[in-house]
Amino acid sequence: MDNRPIGLLDSGVGGLTVVKKIIQKMPGESTVFIGDNAHIPYGDKTKEEIVELTRNSVNFLLSKNVKLIIFACNTATAVAMDIIQKEITVPIIGVIQSGSSAAIRATQTNRVAVVATQMTVALHAYQTEINARDPKVQVTELAAPQLVPLIEKNAGRSNYLSALQQTLKPLENSTFDTLILGCTHYPIIRDEFVQCLPTGVQVVDPADQVAESTFELMKQKGLLGASTQSAQHEYYTTGEVELVEKLGKIVLNDANFTAHHL
What we know:
By secondary structure, the protein is α/β, with parallel strands linked by helices. The protein has helices at 16-25, 47-63, 74-85, 95-106, 118-122, 125-133, 147-152, 157-167, 190-196, 206-221, 241-251, and strands at residues 6-10, 31-35, 68-71, 92-94, 111-116, 138-143, 178-182, 202-204, 233-237, 260-261. The chain has a six-stranded parallel β-sheet with strand order 4-3-1-2-9-10, sandwiched between helices. The longest helix has 17 residues, at 47-63.
């Protein structure tokens, strides 16, 4: 048994959608989350900047004695995960690998669309991962750089719908039966995505598979905590605490959600 906490990092509040799935899957496990809101968005930064910012978050989580780190950020997964995994011994799980597996299982037509940040799309992160697993799947990628800032500001349903209607226009002539929410912020506006997509399109939230993959890896490596332990959850941000707390209460459906400034 290993009662150390699970660490999670993101560029902002989006990673809380992954925290939520982890808590649902493993309610006895403690977590430590760091959102680098002061430097959001990551999607329009250079690779070097993303690696350095991600490394800072990893070092903070290591200082909290975590037993595993989840990169709850697609951009950080695409750019920094392989680099940082070579620098540390703590296992890392990324959202892109999990999301790709889930989408391959979900699609009936072998046609998948991905909406993600600028950097994730520029690196063809999902296309590469999906085609490495199943070359038959056709992947259409779409960058949506305007969505994360709106979600971080809690801009509201009408603003989300307006932005999504513009964002998804390039997909109007594409055929796909599955769409991956390729940024952990997007599940916060999942309902708005569904409203703007053609009827019948399956929406994949990689966080579901991340939780499953995390459980299996921890079980395999003997990292699961004692079933009798009382779980503790800590939330940190480099940005504005009040805004993070407002969104955290919504995402986690927890009126007592409290964040600490780092």
